[in-house]
Amino acid sequence: MDKIFNSIEDVIADDHFLAWYFQDDMLKAKQWEEWLKANPMSEPLVHDSINWLNTYQLSEKEISSNQVEAAHHKLMAKLSEAPLVEMKPRKFRWLIPAAAAVFFIALAGFIFWNKSINKATLASSYGVINEFKLPDGSQVTLNANSKITLNKKWEAGTDREVWLQGEAFFKVQKTPMKNRFIVHANGMDIIVTGTQFNVVAREDESSVLLTEGSVTLKAPDGKEIKMKPGDFVKIENETTALQTVDQQRVLAWKESKLDFDNTPIYEVANIISRHYGTKVTVSTKEIGESTISGIMPNDNLNVLIQALEALGNYKITKANNEIIISGP
How far apart are CA 112 and CA 207, in angstroms? Predict the structure, then answer.
């Protein structure tokens, strides 16, 4: 994808960004993630756009289908009144000067009303950890490059459901009617009433760590597991396994730290790429299979790189928006 963004308006009008934000076209969403990894300089603007959408959606009033249709007709009428002027700096881009302001307002409203009348999306961009309060008072902490989708209103007596992509820590509020709280993630269903737990739902990793209370985990293979505090379930290669882990190490991300324990550099590179949206390359197989241990800061990419170099076993260079890990 060849894209250039100069404003929030540019970002939220992009179909690939919207596909990623609303998770309604997985192919476009993946293409957007690949573009963002290749263009880390755009991360601050994208982060601002996500925050704008989060604020807009959570404060937005419900709108009837008649109002949506009226807004759409009004937008189309405005667009038909203004001439199209081709913009030379960008290929296949056009601006409508006479209707620019109304275009942005009406288009944004039309997109969001159509796509998400009853849904809200909360997200964290690359390199950022965010905390949110949900409609029932429950709290969720989203790791970088993560998001959840949920209904804007949770009615008494009905299940409270969220859909997770990435990593999140939940503190679930109990309700008088003991409504179930369900997290849908990578084919898993985590069912609780009131508890605290961590969930990872990424392309290459799925896991659940229960820190308080109890949950029922329904795995993609149909297996049902009753978890108790301290249990850690990992799903890998379609196999569900109950494992023993160090909770502090799993939850270190909440304090913007990485806790490594004989972790291969290949895995470290994947963590950095996933967290910061930056391409990371390991120069040789030998370097990739070497391991590191220790706690490192993870709230600043440059500081993290310096910490890795301080080990004395690696040389890290940056070139063309790529980080290269090689021998000293």
Answer: 32
